[in-house]
Structures are given as structure tokens and as C-alpha cells.
From TrEMBL:
CDD domains: AcnA_Mitochon_Swivel (cd01578), AcnA_Mitochondrial (cd01584)
Pathway in which this enzyme or protein is active: Carbohydrate metabolism; tricarboxylic acid cycle; isocitrate from oxaloacetate: step 2/2
Protein name: Aconitate hydratase, mitochondrial
EC code(s) of this entry: 4.2.1.3
Length: 782
């Protein structure tokens, strides 16, 4: 292994001062134990075990391994006996840690409470970032959120204390930035209850978004199942320069692979171009990999990651990673299932959208395309930040653009908002003057939270239904996602491009070639942004917002949930399979076109009910388009003949003992990891979801809750189903992996049709279905 050497000056920088330096210096030996994080000194980085497992698997497979294979296979529960075949077998894994954001942590912790276990088995954290609505500015918005969400925050804090889970208070920052700053490191396997968990891949981690039930498995000490991923290689050559940013890499990749092209695969970046990208830039690319359906994305360990680890107080992990550097990069000669090549010298800034993150446009083309399609050119609001682009470098590059405008007497023509990724970023950009520049150009700094990116935005400058354009540095731009207005055309770009467009006030402004008019009437061009990758001084940590679990344990603590609460509700077990086929289930809705988890379980104002299953179920499928009438939240109740909202009709069917199914299109359930999109159909009487294809996380979530996610063996069979049909699913008595089920569809005119339905259940997952849910099965095995 490579020997790690530092000059005395750099050694001091990495180690810090005083007692801490003395403590950390002992860890610079590979044989010393190095803590996974400063918050968990008794949990250690175990590269030795990872290396041993990788060597076992490499010898078994007799071939070089990709980096993602090394990290994933290195965490196998049984590296000797595990059947390994990309895209086919299910792996049983032992993740190193779990992270949960507050909107999904509520249901995850309610399920963990239901498990009856006394304490989590792996390091776990809760992050309060989703429940803070952007209204008038960071401090006031945060204070308001603490007030109206006090019940939920108290529940999460007390549950964390009782069960040994670290708690990051509201105002700490966005979960993925906190993970990058504190918990991600090269080679770690982390699961998080948010679809943008892959952000950690920028630090050489395999970080995977999951539903809450998966998190419960890992917190319970049960091996976690993942279908063995394929591996897509993205070879980067050349070097980023000018207006082109890391965000443009993933915007380009999204245009190539589309929103489902990465499904079932890990995207692994490699090649000489990698070294021109900062660690936080690599995180941006991995973060938005969720929008192509990828299981996760990852970069190989390099000097950029080492520098970031040192700058965030983790020099000891960097030193250890250096000693195991060969483990943390792909083997020479490894093979990818497919390879995309991108020359960074030739890559141009991109803008993706509207309404889908894979509609990619070079910035030079967006104006012409917008005019052709009737998209509004006036930019109403520019929004920078979010978990995708809120690093120190991002803020610095945006401030670099804003400073040029200010120097010419200009301010933003559009409204402009800034979301710092963490308290540490907020404090540091305030200290270093970036926040003042962004404020002076017309910006408003929001709370350290998700905010408008997830629909937590009390937007008042346009009316609902008013056609308008916004440009963001976010990751996702589905219809009505940011502001609940289906007429808002949301485009995604880098923070520096968003800043330039907010200054110009128009979508067809190309800062590479177009001129602005200064206050004195002179024409000028914006120079390409330039900013430090990391602060010259150390980061300013800001306020301490972390709550440690009590050292003495939480056995004596109580977690109270009021039976009259509208925000929280203890869970009752779902009913078990009755042992027979599912007969004469009513089609609740036949969905037309794109149906994301935002369509199935909307966020925004509904986030407040994420801990109350019955209340949150009132938003089930209210955004989906009914093929019968192209209506939204308007379906026919086949028992009464009247039209009503989807949740209302589902409740009526359930009250009358009528089970139902949903029929959907391609990539059903793309987007967020929210398991509420699976819990709600199960709670309201659903039994099966039959579609052309599923997004990975949603399919798993449906299985976890005892539903049947099934796909048409022939996608054309979608057209054979009518909105008023009844469907029976045959073959459940002999339900087995790889064996199709039979659909018998009865039309209202007395005719019927039959066809095959495929599934991806393995034996363990079939047991979940039979028990009624994965949680029920866990209890059976205790």
C-alpha cells in the first residue's frame, strides 16, 4: 500500500490543535482504530474487513472488480456463499450506517417502534430539513417551523434518544450536506431514506436511497437486500473550464440516459477528467444521478476527496484511505455493462426542463427551443442551493457572477433565493462575504433546509395556473413540484447559470456570448465564474445543532404519541394474505403517462402529515392523470356511479370490502424514496399495482408493505384494461421467484381477457407478501 506522508505544516492543518491533535495523531497509523465520525468514537472504519471480503469475491469471480462492486460486495453478509450475478441475484448486505430526513424518519421510527427492539444496531441519524417552509427569510422561517412542527420534532428527538439515534435539529442543514461533511467517507456503505442519498458518492461512498422499511431492517441488524446492480461506466476526459460546471456533467448524462436509463445500475465515473472536479462537484453529479433512476453513483478516491476530508476535520480517515488507496479505486481492466464517454473540454453549460429533468438543452439552444414551444422567456425567480448545489464552491461561483453585476450597478431582474446546504456553509459564506454579495444583488437567504426544492415554498408572486418560468440549481423539476402550480415551467441548471439568468431576467440569455447593459449604459459581458473550492480558512461550524443519544442509553425514556394527534399515529399491522388468489379487484384508476411519487403522494403542504398514515392517505394519487377523462383526482366510483377524488373512492371501496388495483405506465414511482406512496395504497385497501415498469425504490417499497408490484409481460396489455374493469390475480398459491402470475380481466360488458404478469419477488420477499408486510415478517421471526 502507498505510504502516507505529510509535511509538518500540513500535518498540523489536518490534525488541528491541542488535545484533539494528540488524539488524532495516533490514528494516522493504518493499524490504529479510526472513528467513522467524531460523533461516534467507538465505531471504526474497517478497511481491513472490506479488503478481506473484496479479495474473497475477486478470487471467486476470477475477474477485476469495478469500484462499486468492491464497496457493495465488500459489505456482503456472506462473501463466501453469496450468489453474485449483475442484474439478476439479490445480495444480502451489511450497511455501515443509516440516515433519515425528518419527513421520512417519522414513519421509519414508527415502524422501528413497532418492531419492539430496544436500540438500533448500526450508527443512525435523523436530520430535520424537510419541514421548514420558505416564506420571508431564513431566521424567521426557521422559528416558525420550530413552532408549528414542535410535536414532530419532539417525537423525533425523543425517539432518537430512546433508540440510540443521533438527532440533527432544525436549522442544521440538508441531510446530504450534513452526511458529506460528517459521515460519508471512501468505501462506506450507507443507506438513507431520501432518494438523493447518492450525494455521498462524491466522497467515494456507496450511498443508496431507500424507503423507511429498508432502514428499519438495517437498524434492526437484519441483512439488507439489494438486487445486484449492473454498472454503467462514465469515462470523463478533458477538464472543466469557463462556465461549464460539474452540474453540466449530470445534466448531459440525464439527457443521454433519460429518467429510467440508470434503473438497476450504479453509475461509476472514472477517467482522467475526474481530477478536474472538486469533491463537492462530484457530490453534485452523484446527487442528481437519482433523476436517471440509478441505484447510486460513485467516484474513485483521489486527492480532491483527501483534501475535503482534511478540511472537514477528518484527516485521520484521509490518511487511512491513502493506505488503502488501491481498494478505493476500480481494478485495472474491470468491465462495465455499458460506457458513456464525455469530453469535459467540449462540454457546454446545459439547462434541463421543463417538467422533467432529462430534457437537456445546451444553453446556446434554450432560447430558440423555448420560443418554438411557447415556454415563457421571462424568468420570474432564480433559486440556488438545495442538496444538489449548496457547497462553498457553489456559493462562491454564484457570488463571483453576482459581484460582476454589482460592480456595473446591476441587480437581479428576477426574484432570487439562496439556500445554504448546512449551518456550516451558512456561517462560512457569511464570514467570507459571499452571503452579503448575494443579498446585495437582490437575493434572499433562506433557512438551511430543503425549502422550495421539495415544494416547501409559500410562493405569492404568481397565481396558481399562471404560466411562468423559474430556473433552479435543484435536481428535480416535475410538474408543480416546487410551488404547487402546474403551469410553472421549472428548469434546472448550475448555480452560476441560474444567477446569470436571474440577473438578466430572461431564459434566452447565454452568458458565454451575450451582453448585459450596465447602469451607465455600457455593454459588458460576464466573465466565467471563479471561486475557491474550499475556504482558505477552516470552515466556521456555526451553531451546534446536534443532539447525541444519551450515553447511559434510552431504556428508561418514553416516546409519547397522542391518540388525538393529527400529525402522528402509531401503526397497526396490515392484514396477512388469506391464502388464496385475489379475486375481482376493482380498477381504482388507470393512470395515463408519467406518475412519480409526487403524483402518488404529494409533498409541499402534505409533509406535515408524514407521521400520520390515515391523514397523509388523503393525498393518494391526487396528482395522477386518469386515462378515462384526462382529469386529475377525478375518478368514477363504480359502486355509486358518481365521480370523486381518488382517496375518497378508495376509502369507499375499502369500507364496502372491495379490494382494488392501480394500473400504470412506464417507470411508475420515479422520483422520491417516500414509502408513503406505498403505505397509502396498502392502507386504503389496495392489493396490487400493475404497470409497464417500475422505478427501483418504489417497487421495493410496495413489496415491503405487502402489495404486489407486477409488470405486464407484454406492455401492450396495458391497452386491454378499461377503467371500470375487475381484475383477478391467479397463481398466488404457487407464488415463486421467476414464475409469472395470471391476470384475468373482466369487462363490464361480460367479456374477459387473460394475460401474464411478471414480478421480481425472491423467496424472502414472497414471505413479506404472505405475512402482510416485511415488518409483520420481522415480528414473526423474533
Amino acid at each position: 500500500m502507498a505510504t502516507y506522508c505529510l509535511t509538518v505544516a500540513r500535518l498540523r492543518l489536518a490534525l488541528g490543535q491541542g488535545a484533539r491533535r494528540m488524539h488524532v495523531s495516533a490514528a494516522f497509523s493504518a493499524k490504529a482504530k479510526v472513528s467513522m465520525s467524531r460523533f461516534e468514537p467507538s465505531n471504526h472504519v474497517n478497511y481491513q474487513q472490506l479488503n478481506e471480503n473484496v479479495n474473497i469475491v475477486r478470487k471467486r469471480l476470477n475477474r477485476p472488480l469495478t469500484l462499486s462492486e468492491k464497496i457493495v460486495y465488500g459489505h456482503l453478509d456472506d462473501p463466501v456463499g453469496q450468489d453474485i450475478a449483475r442484474g439478476r441475484t439479490y445480495l444480502r448486505l451489511r450497511p455501515d450506517r443509516v440516515a433519515m430526513q425528518d419527513a421520512t424518519a417519522q414513519m421509519a421510527m414508527l415502524q422501528f417502534i413497532s418492531s419492539g427492539l430496544p436500540k438500533v444496531a448500526v450508527p443512525s441519524t435523523i436530520h430535520c430539513d424537510h419541514l421548514i417552509e420558505a416564506q420571508i427569510g431564513g431566521a424567521k422561517d426557521l422559528a416558525r417551523a420550530k413552532d408549528i412542527n414542535a410535536e414532530v420534532y419532539n417525537f423525533l428527538a425523543s425517539a432518537g434518544a430512546k433508540y440510540g439515534v443521533g438527532f440533527w435539529k432544525p436549522g442544521s442543514g440538508i441531510i446530504h450536506q450534513i452526511i458529506l461533511e460528517n459521515y460519508a467517507y471512501p468505501g462506506v456503505l450507507l443507506i438513507g431514506t431520501d432518494s438523493h442519498t447518492p450525494n455521498g458518492g462524491g466522497l467515494g461512498s456507496v450511498c443508496i436511497g431507500v424507503g423507511g422499511a429498508d432502514a428499519v431492517d438495517v437498524m434492526a441488524g437484519i441483512p439488507w437486500e439489494l438486487k445486484c446492480p449492473n454498472v454503467i461506466g462514465v469515462k470523463l476526459t478533458g477538464k472543466l473550464s469557463g462556465w461549464t460546471s460539474p452540474k453540466d456533467v449530470i445534466l448531459k448524462v440525464a439527457g443521454i440516459l433519460t429518467v429510467k436509463g440508470g434503473t438497476g445500475a450504479i453509475v461509476e465515473y472514472h477517467g482522467p477528467g475526474v481530477d478536474s472536479i472538486s469533491c463537492t462537484g462530484m457530490a453534485t453529479i452523484c446527487n442528481m444521478g437519482a433523476e436517471i433512476g440509478a441505484t447510486t453513483s460513485v467516484f474513485p478516491y483521489n486527492h480532491r476527496m483527501k483534501t475535503y476530508l482534511e478540511k472537514t476535520g477528518r484527516g485521520e480517515i484521509a490518511a487511512l484511505a491513502d493506505e488503502y488507496a488501491d481498494l478505493l479505486v476500480p481494478d485495472q481492466g474491470c468491465q462495465y455493462d455499458s460506457v458513456i464517454e464525455i469530453n469535459l473540454d467540449e462540454l457546454k453549460p446545459h439547462i434541463n426542463g421543463p417538467f422533467t429533468p432529462d430534457l437537456a438543452h445546451p444553453i446556446s439552444d434554450i432560447g430558440t427551443t423555448a420560443v418554438k414551444n411557447g415556454w415563457p422567456l421571462e424568468v420570474k425567480v432564480g433559486l440556488i442551493g438545495s442538496c444538489t448545489n449548496s457547497s462553498y464552491e457553489d456559493m462562491g461561483r454564484s457570488a463571483s457572477v453576482a459581484k460582476q453585476a454589482l460592480d456595473k450597478g446591476l441587480k437581479c431582474k428576477a426574484a432570487f433565493t439562496i439556500t445554504p446546504g448546512s449551518e456550516q456553509i451558512r456561517a462560512t459564506i457569511e464570514r467570507d462575504g459571499y452571503a452579503k454579495i448575494l443579498n446585495d444583488v437582490g437575493g434572499m437567504v433562506l433557512a438551511n433546509a430543503c425549502g422550495p426544492c421539495i415544494g416547501q415554498w409559500d410562493r405569492r408572486d404568481v397565481k396558481k395556473g399562471e404560466k411562468n418560468t423559474i430556473v433552479t440549481s435543484y435536481n428535480r423539476n416535475f410538474t408543480a413540484r416546487n410551488d404547487a402550480n402546474p403551469a410553472t415551467h421549472a428548469f434546472v441548471a448550475s448555480p452560476e447559470i441560474v444567477t446569470a439568468l436571474a440577473i438578466a431576467g430572461t431564459l434566452d440569455f447565454n452568458p458565454e456570448v451575450d451582453y448585459l447593459i450596465a447602469a451607465n449604459g455600457e455593454k459588458f459581458k460576464l466573465e466565467p465564474p471563479n471561486a475557491d473550492e474550499l475556504p482558505k480558512k477552516d470552515f466556521d461550524p456555526g451553531q451546534d445543532t446536534y443532539q447525541h443519544p444519551p450515553a447511559e442509553g434510552g431504556a428508561k425514556l418514553k416516546v409519547e404519541v397522542s391518540p388525538t394527534s393529527t400529525r402522528l399515529q402509531l401503526l397497526d399491522p396490515f392484514d396477512k394474505w388469506n391464502g388464496g388468489d385475489l379475486e375481482d379487484m376493482q380498477v381504482l384508476i388507470k393512470v395515463k403517462g408519467k406518475c412519480t411519487t409526487d403524483h402518488i403522494s404529494a409533498a409541499g403542504p402534505w409533509l406535515k402529515f408524514r407521521g400520520h398514515l390515515d391523514n397523509i392517505s388523503n393525498n393518494m394519487l391526487i396528482g395522477a392523470v386518469n386515462i378515462e377523462n384526462d382529469g386529475i383526482n377525478k375518478i368514477k366510483n363504480q359502486l355509486t356511479g358518481e365521480y370523486g377524488g381518488v382517496p375518497d373512492v378508495a376509502r369507499h371501496y375499502k369500507a364496502n370490502g372491495l379490494s382494488w388495483v392501480v394500473v400504470g405506465d412506464d417507470n411508475y414511482g420515479e422520483g422520491s424514496s417516500r414509502e408513503h406512496a406505498a403505505l397509502e395504497p396498502r392502507h386504503l385497501g389496495g392489493r396490487a399495482i400493475i404497470v409497464k415498469s417500475f422505478a427501483r425504490i418504489h417497487e421495493t417499497n410496495l413489496k415491503k408493505q405487502g402489495l404486489l408490484p407486477l409488470t405486464f409481460q407484454d406492455p401492450a396489455d396495458y391497452d386491454k384494461i378499461r377503467p371500470d374493469d375487475k381484475i383477478s390475480i391467479k397463481g398466488l398459491k404457487t407464488f415463486a421467484p421467476g414464475k409469472p402470475l395470471l391476470a384475468v380481466v373482466k369487462h363490464s360488458d361480460g367479456t374477459k381477457v387473460e394475460f401474464q404478469l411478471n414480478h421480481t419477488f425472491n423467496e424472502t420477499q414472497i414471505e413479506w407478501f404472505q405475512a402482510g408486510s416485511a415488518l409483520n415478517r420481522m415480528k414473526e421471526l423474533q
